[in-house]
Design goal:
Elements (H helix, E strand, L loop, with lengths): L8 E2 L11 E2 L10 E4 L4 H12 L6 E4 L33 H13 L3 E6 L3 E4 L49 H6 L5 E3 L5 H17 L3 E4 L7 H8 L17 E4 L19 E3 L1 H11 L25 E4 L22 H13 L4 E6 L7 E2 L2 E2 L36 H12 L5 E6 L4 E6 L3 E6 L5 E6 L5 E4 L6 E2 L2 E2 L3 E4 L4 E6 L7 E5 L7
Helix pairs in contact: 1-2, 4-5, 7-8
The chain binds ligand QV4 and calcium ion (CA).
Length: about 525
């Protein structure tokens, strides 16, 4: 069961970088935001749950694929080797099975759920040389379809169902190729077979029994919905050490659907949530003002402007693929490399009621753009000379060092996660815009945000819907003790307040909520 989190003092001093201890507001909110701790080691995830994510009101962590994968040496140890399983043994660059088990236990004990990224559509590349260059040392012979540690053999793959010359997916317009042929040469499993369904469900059930609360299902587009349904139907309920009797796994499925293909995300709605890639692509293009788009166009944000139904959507600004040009969204996607626009996009996502929100937490790499393509898009996590992943270091101001970006620790993003929890369930209201790129909206009587993405001053009195009082702006600072470390906003008794945002402000955003209200 989720333990009630009292307000906690964040010992790492996230305040103004002055080493001030930051006190999260009392847990009067419903945690709802997932953070993808991409490539983090299990021991670091466990510490982050205890020291930061629990007091910060995060709902859960998406962890990188925990299964044994091929060790790729050329290029040297790319991040994507983890999307090439060679067994379902639980040892990877993030740690051993015991470390995984320990982390799941520690995170659940403080009420932070774990969602595992599971790669179940395929095994490793058919072109991989036979051997035991794998993270646990298991032998495999991909060319022959032999993965004895599972076990899988040649008959457990779709070779007899794929009719393209290369054996790979050659056209996304052919739904049979997309499901039955190899995604970039990866051995494609035959999920219509009892043995394969049993092994996949067995792997997922082992994680559930360890305490995992759900899954990000990789490459879902490449599996038939009826096969996934058969597999999901075998999944255990969540572990009752931490979850109510009969709780079911929370599933969100990676299906890239920007339109233009016969396979639609809606085919998977009956099975769980679906990643809404249009979210980051469209919001990014609006914030970049591509084609004259402006923030006031977002008044109809949601199903009315072509997104999938909110209750089915896993919303995100960027993910581990498209932040490096691998997934969908192209140049519209905004990432940590452009922090001002990125925080505007994340703040909007966390303030808006649409979907289940996931925040990316990345690492820096030596990006080398040549004709718009990043030659180093393969680079793996910060690592030591022996190839092992570096621990995540936390600086005195609460930020991360050693190449870890920790967007989830950037104060405006951290504070907007709290905003999302405080306003959970509250409807969007009091929308205002200037017809350009200055907008504002409230969330019931609990929160209000103002964004200025125009090149001119925003200086306006607005109806916030909030109770009268003095509030701390949680973008320029936060409530600390009896005061505000950033701007203050006075809401008068009829809910109106005056907002001034200069286009040159560090972040042209202001946000207030009832947990950031000063005592009378
Ligand atoms: C190369 C050639 C192939 C050839 C093959 C032969 O490109 O044409 O057949 O060799 O062996 C890596 C390399 C890729 C290589 C492949 C196999 O980048 O060049 O193929 O390995 O050796 C990640 C990376 C891929 C990576 C893959 C496996 O993005 O670059 O491929 O891991 O290591 C579609 C899908 C969507 C998918 C997205 C990337 O619909 O589901 O493409 N997204 C998910 C994950 C993503 C992951 C995979 C799926 C595969 O988010 O991270 O791909 O698990 O849109
Ligand atoms: Ca497939």
């Amino acid at each position: 069961m989720k333990k009630v989190r009292a307000g906690s003092v964040l010992a790492v001093g996230l305040g103004l970088g002055l080493g001030l201890a930051y006190t999260f507001p009392p847990s009067t909110r419903r945690p709802s935001t997932i953070v993808h701790l991409f490539e983090w080691r299990w021991s670091d995830v466990a510490q982050e749950c205890e020291r930061y994510l629990a007091p910060g009101g995060f709902d859960g962590v998406q962890i990188s694929p925990p299964t044994e994968n091929i060790v790729v040496t050329s290029p040297p140890r790319p991040w994507w080797e983890r999307y090439q399983p060679v067994s379902y043994d639980l040892c990877s660059r993030s740690g051993t099975e015991q470390e995984l088990r320990d982390m799941i236990c520690r995170c659940n004990n403080v009420g932070v759920k774990i969602y595992a990224d599971v790669v179940i559509n395929h095994m490793c590349s058919a072109g991989a040389a036979a051997g035991s260059r794998s993270t646990c040392g298991s032998y495999f012979n991909a060319g022959a379809g032999e993965f004895p540690s599972v076990p899988y053999s040649a008959c457990h793959f779709n070779d007899d169902k794929c009719f393209t010359r290369s054996g790979n997916i050659e056209s996304y317009q052919d739904i049979h190729q997309v499901r039955n042929c190899r995604l970039v040469g990866l051995r494609d499993l035959a999920h219509d077979q009892e043995h394969v369904r049993g092994r996949v469900a067995g792997y997922m059930n082992k994680l559930l029994d360890m305490g995992v609360a759900g899954f990000r299902v990789d490459a879902s587009k490449h599996m038939w919905p009826e096969d996934l349904k058969a597999i999901y139907s075998r999944l255990h309920n969540l572990n009752t050490t931490w979850f109510p009797e009969g709780s079911r796994p929370f599933i969100y499925q990676e299906v890239i659907d920007l339109g233009g293909e016969p396979i639609k995300g809606s085919e998977y709605f009956g099975l769980g949530l679906v990643t809404e890639f249009k979210y980051g692509a469209k919001l990014g293009s609006v914030i970049r003002k591509l084609g004259g788009q402006k923030l006031s166009d977002l008044k109809s944000w949601g199903e009315d402007c072509g997104l999938m139904p909110s209750e089915k959507a896993l919303a995100f600004i960027d993910n581990h693929d498209n932040q490096r040009g691998h997934g969908a969204g192209g140049d519209a996607i905004i990432t940590f490399w452009e922090p001002r626009m990125y925080q505007m996009a994340v703040a909007f996502m966390l303030a808006h009621p649409y979907g289940r929100a996931r925040v990316m937490s990345s690492y820096r790499w030596d990006r080398r753009l040549v004709k718009g393509k990043d030659e180093n898009d393969w680079m793996g996590p910060p690592s030591l000379p022996d190839g092992s992943t570096k621990p995540v270091s936390i600086r005195s101001d609460g930020s991360c060092g050693d190449g870890w970006v920790c967007e989830h620790r950037w104060p405006p993003i951290r504070n907007m996660v709290v905003f999302r929890g405080v306003t959970a369930g509250e409807p969007l209201c009091n929308w205002w815009d200037n017809g350009g790129s200055q907008i504002a909206f409230g969330r019931g009587g609990r929160g209000f945000i103002v964004i200025n993405n125009d090149d001119c001053l925003l200086d306006v009195s607005l109806q916030t819907g909030l109770p009268g009082g003095t509030y701390c702006d949680i973008i320029s600072g936060q409530r600390e003790g009896g005061g505000c470390s950033g701007k203050r906003v006075v809401v008068d008794d009829d809910g109106k307040a005056h907002f001034t945002i200069h286009p040159s402000d560090l972040l042209p955003i202001m946000a207030i909520h009832t947990d950031a209200k000063l005592p009378k």
